[in-house]
Amino acid sequence: MSVVTATVAWLTDPAQWSGAGAIPQRLLEHIGLSAVSLLIAVAIALPAGLAIGHTRRGKVVAASLTNIGRAIPSLAVIGIVLPITAAIDPQLGFKVYPTLVAMVILAIPPILVNTEAGIAGVDRDLVESARAMGMRETQVLISVEIPVALSVILAGVRSAATQIVATMTLGAIFGSGGLGRFLVEGIAQNDDGKIFGGVVLVAGLALLTEAAFVTIERAAAWRGREHPGTNRRAAASVPT
Amino acid sequence: MDTSWILAHLDELGLRTIQHLGLAFLAVGSGFVLSMGLSVLAVRVRPALAPIIALSGILYTIPSLALFAALVPVTGLSILTAEVPLVLYTLLIFVRNIVAGLDGVPGDVLEAADAMGYSRRTRLLSVELPLALPLIVAGLRLASVSTIGLVTISGILGDRFGGLGFFIFEGYRHAFPTEILAGAVPSAVLALSVDRLLVGAGARLTPWSVGSVAR
Amino acid sequence: MRFSRMLALGASMLVLLSACSTGGGSKPTIKIGSVGFDEARVVAEIYAQALEANGYAVDRAGIGLGNRKVLLPALESGQIDLQPEYVGSGLAYYGGAPEGHADTNKELFADALKAKGLAISILDYTPGEDTNAFVVRKETADQFGISKLSEIGAVQDQLKWAFATDCPTNPLCAAALKAAYDIAPKDVTLLDACSGPMAEALLQKTVDVAELCSTQPEIITNAWVILDDDRATQPADSIVPLVRDDLLAKVDKAAFSKILNDISEKIDTPTLGQLYYDVAVGKKDIKDVASAWLKANGFVK
């Protein structure tokens, strides 16, 4: 039970909540870097997924890139990027860019897969009738496909977000900020309270992220309830 | 890029690769067996399903770094400290996929098997598992690739572990990019190769499902 | 050389996979540990190879285990038997107040260990010393006109600092700097002690003041300035082998001690610098550097 008491003591210690390198700073660093990584990943993967799902072309390329992105160990990415970016920018290139790149690579596959599968899985009849009504392709995408596929797409973003929050800790091994610093420092200082305090914070943040996105998804699903056109089978086979 | 360093260390690179695969194989194998048991339990005892999935979900949000660190006071620097977290992480992937696979077996097929007098065990082994195979193989693939990535992080436990991750840590400590790359690139290649291998194996095992299952 | 290294790595993997520890034979297996930075690892490797040359089996799993806060508990619990420790820092870890002389520090250290009820012995110390050094680039020293730690307090918040990861809890680091020099800067990055990244950070100007080991080769190669510890907060850190008494009980104590003491005698500060250089800058393998040194000094054939 001493680990539990040490953790509680660390989390409730006011000294941990103010000053440099304290919980608020690390929380902000963690959330900030996660948010930026997610935004970049969405900016890359969402349009790609929409295009591929809608046109049904480029699936093979997308699948290959997704596989590669999923398979590459994040630590390896950080390790490869670090010497390159540190040489370019000794400040950010050392503390921020390697982790950022690794997290973006981590986040692209779930967003891409879900977006593509969601869009491609929209009931073809619905799409065809929209076209028959004279809608242009982009209109079809925006007015029909995206609303119907929204919950699947958001599920992909949710998966990406929680993975980023949890895996971001790796960057701390190489000098990045964020909650992972508590893990690395706790190990070095043999401080169980710090290690597990860090764990609680990261797990808590990840679960909060999950909950936040689930809420967004529910809201989107509620709004999309007039469009019962999603092919349920395609959605179910997509990992969320 | 210091190619002379790489050439001088080819033997060590080879041994670390073997170590890497060994650690991963052990974890995926144990995780698979464990998950099989858990999944069958979850499917039979419905109320157990939600807690099992929820628990493994929470486990998944715990950074691997923390799990490794948490075990050191308990299991020291033994192979258990490296393997237990690796196995735990495979649980979520396996359980979710195996349960989905078993759940996906059509009800009338199960009824037909029962009608033919299959025991629960025979039914499981001869009917349910083969039909669940595509999703099980998909889970195997995901778990293997993810474990190969996590093995690199086990390098935090010291020079004995980490597989190729050892070179990433060492290279970082020496600010020596060649060494970092010597660990990072092969581990990425390893993960990709295993991924491709399992896709091929999966296609051959379940030729009826090629092209239609979750990638 | 290559073959024996392969064999060693292969053997350690077999141990890994069988999870069985070796035993038996007339001489016990000695579990050696060390902190993570290169100098400590080379010295530990030198001890290891010397002991092997004298017929002992050595388990190197503890080399590079972590820093002092991880390592000393491991020594206390018996996870490792032998560790090259820095006499002043080790003493401070156990609550003692190190002084200028290695002799005094060794005695104080032995007293501190006894006071804690720990059955650990200290063998002879090396003439070579490695102290914690707070280092700046030459331009920084010139720009602010500083050469001593007592001078940097006034400008500390204009600079970016890097300390070792265990600094906040190391009595010789954060606490000492604050007490003696009123140094408690705002912009602090924590990095691995005495490591490449620490030196790189100073080199790339990511930070302006770094905590390095005084024998770290990058200081010389980059002509950096070690700020003078004019209020004597950092002890003279000679290396001493810490050995568990229960290991000493299993061996011929005199012969065992002689092996290590003879080696320690030969390790002076230039030697430490050279060993450190060969590994950190020369990128040579720790095992090769250790065996080359042992051969050159006549300890092995």
Overview of the structural elements:
The complex is a heterotrimer of chains A (240), B (215) and C (301). Chain A is mostly helical and 240 residues long. Chain A has a single domain, classed as MetI-like (MetI-like fold), CATH 1.10.3720. The C terminus of chain A is likely disordered. Chain B has a single domain, classed as MetI-like fold. In chain B, helix 2 packs antiparallel against helix 7. The two termini of chain B are 36 Å apart. The mean pLDDT of chain B is 85. Chain C has 301 residues and is α/β, with parallel strands linked by helices. Chain C folds into two domains: 176 residues, D-Maltodextrin-Binding Protein, domain 2, CATH 3.40.190; 95 residues, Osmoprotection protein (prox), domain 2 (D-Maltodextrin-Binding Protein, domain 2). Helices cover 47% and strands 17% of the residues of chain C. In chain C, the strands form three sheets. In chain C, strands 7-6-8-5-9 form a five-stranded mixed sheet. In chain C, strands 3-10-4 form a three-stranded antiparallel sheet. The longest helix of chain C is centred in the first third of the chain and has 17 residues. Chain C is globular and about 60 Å long. The relative contact order of chain C is 0.18. About 4% of the residues of chain C have low confidence.
Please render the helix and strand layout as text.
The complex is a heterotrimer of chains A (240), B (215) and C (301).
Chain A lengths: L1 H11 L10 H33 L3 H13 L2 H15 L3 H4 L1 H24 L3 H9 L4 H31 L12 H9 L3 H32 L8 H5 L4
Chain B lengths: L2 H6 L1 H35 L1 H16 L2 H12 L3 H25 L3 H9 L4 H34 L11 H9 L3 H29 L10
Helix pairs in contact in B: 2-3, 2-5, 2-7, 3-5, 4-5, 5-7, 6-7, 7-9, 8-9
Chain C lengths: L1 H17 L10 E7 L2 H16 L3 E10 L1 H10 L4 E5 H7 L8 H14 L4 E3 L9 E5 L1 H7 L4 H4 L8 E4 L6 H11 L6 E4 L4 H8 L5 E5 L3 H5 L3 E2 L12 E6 H6 L2 H14 L2 H12 L5 H11 L5
Parallel strand pairs in C: 1-2, 6-7, 6-8
Antiparallel strand pairs in C: 3-10, 4-10, 5-8, 5-9
Helix pairs in contact in C: 2-12, 2-14, 4-5
